[in-house]
Amino acid sequence: MRVVLLGAPGSGKGTQAKLMVEHYGVPQISTGDLLRASVKSGTELGKRAKVAMDNGDLVADDIIIGMIAERMKDDDTKDGFIFDGFPRTIPQARALDNIFDEMHHPLGHALLIDVDAELLIKRISGRLTCGNCGQMYNDFFSPPAKEGVCDKCDSDNLIKRADDNEKTVRHRVEIYNEQTRPVIGYYDAQRKVVKVEGVGDIDDVFARVKDALR
Ligand code: AMP
User: Is 32 in the pocket of ligand 1 (CB under 6 A)?
Assistant: First the structure.
């Protein structure tokens, strides 16, 4: 299974990637998670990335491509992987194709999760994650039973990402339309794109994902 997940911010890529990890037994590689880990540990790379991330802009291609090339050397990627949030620009997609050429393994599918833009804004600006167990919530669609407390582990450490406010989210959707949407055309030209509707229950979307990848 060698898949890249495409879709606007908030389309559910991260959620579907986690279900895919369990079902297919291959790792999720999220450039957003890798970057947040670098910011948290205060590395040079993290410092360079933080300003762009806080503004909802894209981090420079050279940083991202270097990070992915390193990650792909890890042993757990040899039977496959799910890229979540990468590639986000045409140069990143080209660089990934070069990596695949070197590995002699082509990409399987580019899976596009399609969702209406206004719904996306609510999905992202309402997003909350439990800082203790990772359980995800949404203020609009799936709030915790008791406000501010995780249903799963009782922690009151429910965190909103710094870049999940409405202003930044609108900007991220604009950036997606300008810089990332062309990546769909790039994979379409290779006949790799499969599309699923990203609206509705998480498990229903996942059922569509499995059908599309069959
Ligand atoms: P995400 O968690 O995928 O929404 O990513 C959070 C932020 O990290 C984005 O808004 C970008 O600033 C940055 N980022 C993540 N992946 C990439 C990428 N492939 N290219 C450039 N910037 C990225």
Answer: yes
Active-site residue identified among 13, 18, 36, 208 = 13
Q: Where are the domains of the chain?
A: 2-115+176-213
172 lines ligand 1 (CB under 6 A): yes
- Read off the pTM: 0.84
For domain 2-115+176-213, give the CATH number. 3.40.50.300
How far lies 27's CA from each of 126, 131, 135, 161, in Å?
27, 21, 19, 23
Query: pLDDT by residue (tens digit) across 54-86?
Result: 888 899 999 999 999 999 989 999 889 999 999
Alpha helices (H) along 82-201: 90-103, 117-125, 166-175, 181-188
Tokens 């899976």 identify what position? 111
